[in-house]
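Morning. Coffee machine broken again, so started the prediction first thing and wrote up yesterday's gels while waiting. Chain of 561 residues, entered below exactly as on the submission form.
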Amino acid sequence: MKHNKEAPDLSHRVAATDDLEISAYLQVAETRKVLADQESEVPSSTNSPISREAVVILDFGSQYSQLIARRVRECHVYCEILPPDAPYERVQALQPRGFILSGGPASVYDTDAPKLPGYVLETGLPVLGVCYGMQLVAQELGGLVAPATKREYGHAVAYVNDTSSRIFTGLPFSFSVWMSHGDQVSQLPPGFQVLAYTDNSQVAAMGKEKIFGLQFHPEVVHTTEGKNIIRNFLYEVCGCEGSWTPGSFVSDTMQRIREQVGSGKVICALSGGVDSAITATLVHKAVGDQLTCIFVNNGLLRREEAERNIHTFQKNLQMNLVYVDATDRFLSRLIGIIDPELKRRIIGEEFIRVFEEEARKIGNIDFLAQGTLYPDVIESTTPETKAAAKIKTHHNVGGLPPNLRFSLVEPLRYLFKDEVRAVGIELGLPEEMVYRQPFPGPGLAIRVIGEVTRERLEVLRAADWIVMNEVKRSGLYRELWQSFAILTPLRSVGVMGDGRTYANVVAVRAVTSEDGMTADWAHLPYDVLARISNRIVNEVPGVNRVVYDISSKPPSTIEWE
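Came back before lunch.
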């Protein structure tokens, strides 16, 4: 084991809000599960995997493209979201069984509207066009698209003309759908038939042989038979069998890591969160002692987090671990910084610089492993997802400096969060670790709204500790996607001990979600909220008011910054 500084030892202490039950790791062999009923896992690395069965989702700017991917993965079929101008070689590398064309905000008859790549129809593969995607197909094959006389948005009822159509096999005659369009197919392409209609759309679905179009969105939960429609397309039309499982992902990814790394050395940006933990475990199982994990205490961690992570990865997982206490370094760079995007960039750059310095001490390092996920890639608008609107820069994606001297190993790059967790269980990691709530790469820096100082961090740590303690005490931890405290830049008047106070306002955030792409605010019981508020006001110096965030994503994001 390697250390450039003696790691703190709190193994004698039991954290009240400990996210990791270390003892559970001793029972790994008993907790291993075969998750055949889990959502399909995706082989991935720096380069996209070659899949035996895959579909390509071409993104024309829809807000729902990632939901299409989610539904495809739920059917145990691998998929990737690509921009319509992706080179055919990139598409061909996936050996796709078919194409799904997303919706989009443009009108197909606009001069600058995204066009349908020629290879989509030239390959002769099955095609499913959704909303704008259907209109593209109709226009390309000789149909007409025109503005609708009545815009259709929200709930509608679709009536199926032909339930024997492969796309509607086994579905009822009518079902609820979700519409969001201002244009319509006014004339079918030659040879196509109307497969379904609504009160306001004469062509709610069309089809011919292996090419289908849907004016409604099957990927959203409001379309009651949406997942079945996608499954029919994948299985009945594309001929997929649903062979992607956590086990196949793990074996394929480990082989891919070995091929990428060869005899090189890898360092892992270990934060102790779910993503970096599973990344480190995958790489460690693939290349063993070629991996050295670097755990940087940036001073932006939650209470006792550094000690727990060191105990887990060094003592229980037997990984080479370098511990670096860089608190002073990070906090000095954040002095006076208010803008959240600048915070993220500074923290991302500083992380990489620390890694580079530690790598020089270790020797020649060739690769940096990190836990980038597919939502990170989508929201950060990388070259892979040009059509997506940039929401924020993710630490693992947009925060990297352009002169990075390592090659990246990102085995989870094409996975959603719940898929990552299924991989963690497949790897034999304890559920207490695998189902830990997400924690942002920039840490508490983006939960201290405004300037980050030592004093403000300590206030937030104390409040956050109470939130987590009460959530776990109430048995709600696994039901929530995230739950945490935010230190706002506000101060408010209060009365404590018959005296006037003017102190900090702490916000509490708790959300439910499947993958972090969308989220609803959690309806926490009033007694839980009351205990949280009472404890924070009484136990955290400098706080006299607690508020609860009841915003969903969208329109808000989960984090405040």
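The longest strand covers residues 144-160. Going to sketch it on the whiteboard this afternoon.
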